[in-house]
Amino acid sequence: MLRHLTDTRDFSKEEIKEILLKASQFLNGDYTDTLKKKLVINIFFENSTRTRSSFEVAAKRLGAEVVNLDVATSSSTKGETLSDTATNLDAMGPSAIVIRHSNPGVPKILSRYVKSSIVNGGDGAYAHPTQALLDLFTLNKALGSVEGKNITIVGDIKNSRVANSNIELLQRFNANVTLVAPVHFMPSYSNVRKLYKLEDAIKDTDAIISLRTQTERHQYPIYASLKDYALDYKITKKLIGDKKIFLLHPGPVHRNIDIDDDMLEDERTLVLKQVENGVAVRMAVLEKLILDR
Ligand code: NCD
Known about the structure:
Blueprint: H1 13-27, E1 39-44, H2 50-61, E2 65-69, H3 82-90, E3 96-101, H4 106-111, E4 117-123, H5 129-143, E5 150-154, H6 161-172, E6 176-180, E7 193-195, H7 198-202, E8 207-210, H8 226-233, H9 237-240, E9 246-248, H10 261-265, H11 271-291
Parallel strand pairs: 1-2, 1-3, 3-4, 5-6, 5-8, 6-7, 8-9
The structure holds N-carbamoyl-L-aspartate.
């Protein structure tokens, strides 16, 4: 059966455990060209540094061919509808199409028009499933397991697809999730613990996921300045002290606004580990979607 990954709920807990186990093997270099002769197309309608190249490296490590559609020069700027662009690319016979779009729901809608697996590389403020999977993988490695652990998400949670996907996945794996943000960055979920002061959360947290303020999604400036935001929500080495707290961030980091220089260099900060793990997790996701049919 053709499968897609449009949000974290597309995979059961058992399937996610399998994917993360596979990712561990891949991380140890234990892989071959299982996707040889398969084609993966990347279409990114929003900027990306890590996610697009991570999918490309992942697909190539397993022997697949990769085509990156340059959206700025594609026919979408000539008025072609998104579904027409997708069905035309689909006609070239890719096994998977990885898509990022600023509108929530685009990957899900396109999945109805194509014969290849759609992988969501981030849609608006809705979902970023592979980021959540790689964050879970990274947290599991650091903490043994997230079960019963306290995980704090800090930042512009309301506008963050990363937060959305992480909350769903972490809660499904029985972590205690706490959200920390100013009122206007706090989502309206009722089933998650919410705190407004960073100091209150770090007393008993095992890990923090810091998020960037999603200025591109704000209709008008919410904080007087990012400096003002940083005064209350920046993760600093001074704040963390000698506590055993791991720190994650999906990138791009607003240096000295989200996290200070000293903490970014600290060995408890796993930002580059996330990038490394991300390739292995995406290899496992692509392999599952393409070969498990
Ligand atoms: C994030 C994204 O684009 O959703 N980055 C990423 O994929 N690693 C987070 C962000 O842009 O802040």
